[in-house]
Amino acid sequence: MKLKTLLIIKAVVCLGFGPLLLFFPGPILNLLGTSFGPGAALTAREYGAALFGNLFLTWLSRNSEDSVARRAIIWHLFIYDAIALVVVLIIQLSGGLNVLGWGIVAVYLFFTISFGYFLLPKNISK
Q1: Which of 23, 65, 100, 101 could form a disulfide with 92 if both were Cys (CB 3.0 to 4.6 A apart)?
Q2: Domain spans in the chain, listed from the N-terminal domain onward
Q3: Are the CB atoms for 21 and 49 separated by under 8 Å?
């Protein structure tokens, strides 16, 4: 897979979930089997905003050439997805989400491995 394709996939995923979490956090959190309250609403909406940021980062950088900036973007996305993977996995294993939570774990695992692949020296310029 080319980096451009991966960045587009990430942008589409962020477009799919960012607006939902920003504007409709209650139904999404209820679907995932977790409780909804003011704290959860704040966290979900902030997460939705973060997804919008990742959406624009990935979409606008999809055509970038090999550079220090592009490598920084790959590092950012790798670190972001790796931390999110650990956090969501802990929440899932503690029973904080229903079975749909495993889908979120899978998405973060996919992006962590994929962006990690592009950090390997032989793949950085692809």
Answers
A1: 101
A2: 3-117
A3: no
**Tens-digit pLDDT profile for residues 59-112:** 999 999 989 999 999 999 999 999 999 999 999 999 999 999 999 999 999 999
Instruction: Choose among 28, 80, 72, 26: nearest CA to 53.
Output: 80
Round to whole Å and give the CA distance between 112 and 119.
11
Q: Count the Cβ atoms, other than its own, within 10 Å of residue 5.
A: 11
Q: How many CB atoms lie within 10 A of CB 36?
A: 15
Distance CA 62, CA 11 (A): 9
Residues found in the chain = 126
pTM for this entry:
0.90
Q: How far apart are CA 94 and CA 39, in angstroms?
A: 19
